[in-house]
Amino acid sequence: xxxxxxxxxxxxxxxxxxxxxxxxxxxxxxxxxxxxxxxxxxxxxxxxxxxxxxxxxxxxxxxxxxxxxxxxxxxxxxxxxxxxxxxxxxxxxxxxxxxxxxxxxxxxxxxxxxxxxxxxxxxxxxxxxxxxxxxxxxxxxxxxxxxxxxxxxxxxxxxxxxxxxxxxxxxxxxxxxxxxxxxxxxxxxxxxxxxxxxxxxxxxxxxxxxxxxxxxxxxxxxxxxxxxxxxxxxxxxxxxxxxxxxxxxxxxxxxxxxxxxxx
Length: 263
Fold this sequence. Notes:
Blueprint: E1 5-9, E2 14-19, H1 30-45, E3 51-56, H2 67-74, H3 78-98, E4 103-107, E5 110-112, H4 114-120, E6 124-127, E7 132-134, H5 148-156, H6 158-166, E8 171-172, H7 173-179, E9 184-185, H8 191-203, H9 207-220, H10 225-240, H11 243-254
C-alpha cells in the first residue's frame, strides 16, 4: 500500500484507514485518491474486517485537493477532467457510500472540499472541538461533485445546505452536531479511540442485516414508500431465515450476546 494511506487492522476487526499527508494538511494528490480506493477495496474484500474508521494524521482530516492536483486538472482537457473526477475522486466517495460494512469518520480540523465530501459519504461522523466542514468549491468557481449536492440537503435541509454550497460557509463542530451534520463531539485526545469503539460496536452486529439496512436507507432517499415496502419485505424474509437471526433468538433465551457471522 502506498505510504499516503496507512491501514491498520485490529483484532476486533476494525480497520483504521489514515490519510498520511500531515505536512500538507492531508491535501490529496490524484495518486492519494488511487491509494485510498485501493485501501477501501482491500478492507472490503477482507472477511476479517468488520468495520472501518477513516481519519487523517495530524491536525486535519483532509483540507481537500492539493495545489498540484488542482493545477493538473486546470490544464487538462474536459474528458480527462471528467475521468479523473468520476473514476478517482468519485471512486473514493462511491466506495465509502456503498460499503456494506460500517464506516466511521474521525474528524479533527479541516474537512474541506474532498475531505468534506468523503466525510459525508461515511455512515457516522465523530468530531473533536477543532473540526469544521466546508464545501469551499464555490470560492474556486466550482461545485461539489462527489455527492454533497445530493446528501447535504437531506442531512441538514436546503436552507443550511445553500449556506454551505452557495456561500462556501464553514460549519464548526458544535454547529455540525446541532444541525445533524455530525453525530457526536469528542475530546481530541479520545477521538480516534471513540471512533474505533463505535466501529467495533457496529462491527459486532449482523453484517448481513447492517448491509441490507444501510442499502435500504440509501435507497429510501431516492425511492418511494411502496417500493421500499416491497424491497424491505424481501430483505426481511432473507434475514429471518439467516443463522444470525436464529442465534439472536437463541441468545435472548440464554441471556447472552448473539454471535453474528453474516450467514
